[in-house]
């Protein structure tokens, strides 16, 4: 079954009670039991039919067998690290979402888990024997570097490590890491999966039964689960993922082609697919601030992946928790601008950015 069909149908059978085509919102905290302690459903922190439909749909989309959903993308990240022990080592991409960096360095590092940040897009990178986990974003946030997942998986496994891939930017439309050897995939479903900037969520997908059992136990024990309405909204977004990603991709490519020849753009960063574009404006940080404040169609806001276009300055916004010297060392310039290119008409997006170029001149 092709991805365009999977996202609409996988895990989403008509409701057996009523025949409803859309999965109902099971807005309940508990379930009646026919016998004490014997029930298919017992408590909605543990299981909920709406969440199960979403989990099954995401698993199928990523060519996995288990989907485990959470209240946010960071709750999903947190769950993975909770499977480690003090003294375990993690190799992480150097250009990683600021919230992930903050969670690793300010929360888990003090419990004795060791984190090293390296450029995983470098094909010569070495994974030391004894590493427990390799954490990769590809494309990265916000520099949009890509990694050869199959090569990295082979290196990780040779070192005795698991490979986790944050596939939020690419989505299963453009990339399915489990098919390339990754052990688990993470999504901030807040972004492209949900697609409408109206719900926060996260997910882990794997084909590894042992990992899935650990994640499910933590999901239930820690309790960072999404509510049924959040799951319904995310499931509805999943259905249109393939067609939305086609338009995001088309618009981003058109903007990249236009900006690469623009005299006021110093550098354009684009992985060749998808809706995320970063660029460095000619001028100083003040010019960049004027630019992002001048757009009308692009909304100045954090997050990404919705149908509407967003614009942000990573150094001040999404990556403000990363120390300035670290940002500078990996190439996150103060004037770096990140675009989440939406599905509006391309002429309106281009005109909006052209007006912002004029505003940036002061």
Describe the structure.
This protein has 362 residues and is α/β, with parallel strands linked by helices. It has two domains: 3-239, Aspartate Aminotransferase, domain 2, CATH 3.40.640.10; 242-360, Aspartate Aminotransferase, domain 1 (Alpha-Beta Complex). The protein has helices spanning 3-9, 49-61, 73-81, 98-108, 149-158, 171-174, 209-222, 228-239, 241-259, 285-294, 324-330, 346-360, and strands at 66-70, 89-93, 114-118, 133-137, 162-166, 184-187, 202-206, 265-269, 276-281, 299-300, 310-312, 336-340. The strands form two sheets. A seven-stranded mixed beta sheet has the order 1-7-6-5-4-2-3, sandwiched between helices. A hairpin with a 6-residue loop joins strand 8 and strand 9 (276-281).
Layout of helices and strands, plus pairs?
Blueprint: H1 3-9, H2 49-61, E1 66-70, H3 73-81, E2 89-93, H4 98-108, E3 114-118, E4 133-137, H5 149-158, E5 162-166, H6 171-174, E6 184-187, E7 202-206, H7 209-222, H8 228-239, H9 241-259, E8 265-269, E9 276-281, H10 285-294, E10 299-300, E11 310-312, H11 324-330, E12 336-340, H12 346-360
Parallel strand pairs: 2-3, 2-4, 4-5, 5-6, 10-11
Antiparallel strand pairs: 1-7, 6-7, 8-9, 9-12, 11-12
Helix pairs in contact: 1-2, 2-8, 3-4, 10-12
Give the H and E element order: HHEHEHEEHEHEEHHHEEHEEHEH
Mean pLDDT: 96
Q: Structural class of the helix and strand makeup?
A: alpha/beta
- The CATH architecture of the largest domain: 3-Layer(aba) Sandwich
Tally of individual helices? 12
Strand tally, please? Answer: 12
Our estimate of the beta-strand percent is: 15-25%
In whole angstroms, the N-to-C terminal distance is 53 Å
Report low-confidence residues grouped into runs of 5 or more: none
Could you say which overall geometry the principal axes of the C-alpha atoms support?
globular
CATH fold group of the largest domain: Aspartate Aminotransferase, domain 2
Major sheet summary line: 7 strands, mixed
Helix content: 25-40%
Strand order, sheet with most strands = 1-7-6-5-4-2-3
Number of domains: 2
What is the level 1 CATH name of the largest domain? Alpha Beta
Radius of gyration: 21 Å
* CATH homologous superfamily placement of the largest domain: Type I PLP-dependent aspartate aminotransferase-like (Major domain)
